[in-house]
């Protein structure tokens, strides 16, 4: 006799059989999910591999361009950019948030420039006294901010007198038989150090001390840097015609044209959005700063050529020395201060 509890058909259902059927039904879905996950992982790996290849290719191209630029100019582009960004950040912070901070910045840059200059002159055979140059140079630079403008001329005269007397006394006590013309050269070049670095730095600090002067200091530095950058980019890209081969073989007229465009554009933008003067005054501002920056650049190139050196020092990799970065900025202080006095009435109006 058959068991009455058995299901029709005589087949016994094993315990858990419905779950087994459900698992079997879910297997295709699990396979599909696994396939989708595998495909997604493959896609991610392929995308990552392609991205790494693109980065490696871009890096190779950048290194090739950097190497060509380095071969042509002797500058490391990567280091130059990093150092320029760092200096620019410190400069902006000091001018925008704390005027006295720029005084410290300018004083440090001026003293480093004096030290570089005196070292280069000493290596070339001149007798220049470093310590008195630094002491009186600091006094000249700081007088621009802390004293009345007319007092700067008094401090400058006293500073040069101290430098000259110090050099003559040192020469008389040495008894080394140095010829008169060499002693005269030492005295003249010692005075030039004070005029070239601390005096120009003091003019920047005079401008800083004026109402709103920090914006004018920032503006003329931006124009000087923009013109230098424009000349660099245009010279590297299309430079063919030497501008002054006996003074600076790397400078070209095409580079100068790039500097003119960059300086004029920067001058107009700064006039409209920072200085509050008419656009045409911005063009004048850009052209004047470009002219003084070019004179300063060529002037330092003549000095270095006379001394037989490429850079004043190697303290700033990719740039040379501190004075190599200040060569176009220092003389521009004259033009910036004069234009401030000329255009300030336009701001008031």
Q: Can you characterise this structure?
A:
The structure is a single chain. With 349 residues, the chain is mostly helical. It folds into two domains: 100-207, no CATH class; 210-349, no CATH class. The protein has helices spanning 17-73, 77-97, 99-123, 130-146, 149-174, 180-196, 198-209, 213-238, 253-275, 279-307, 322-326, 332-348; strands at residues 242-244, 248-252. It has a two-stranded antiparallel ribbon. The N and C termini lie far apart (121 Å). The model is unreliable at 1-14 (pLDDT under 50). It is an enzyme of class 2 (transferase).
Quick description:
It comes from Microbacterium koreense. By secondary structure, the protein is mostly helical.
Strand order of the largest sheet: 1-2
How much strand content do the residues show?
under 5%
Structural class: mainly alpha
Q: Strand tally, please?
A: 2
Mean pLDDT figure = 84
Order of helices and strands: HHHHHHHHEEHHHH
Shape label? globular
Share of residues in helices: over 70%
Number of domains: 2
**Which regions have little confidence, pLDDT < 50, spanning 5+ residues?**
1-14
* Biggest sheet details: 2 strands, antiparallel
Q: Supply Rg.
A: 34 Å
Q: How many alpha or pi helices?
A: 12
The termini sit apart by: 121 Å
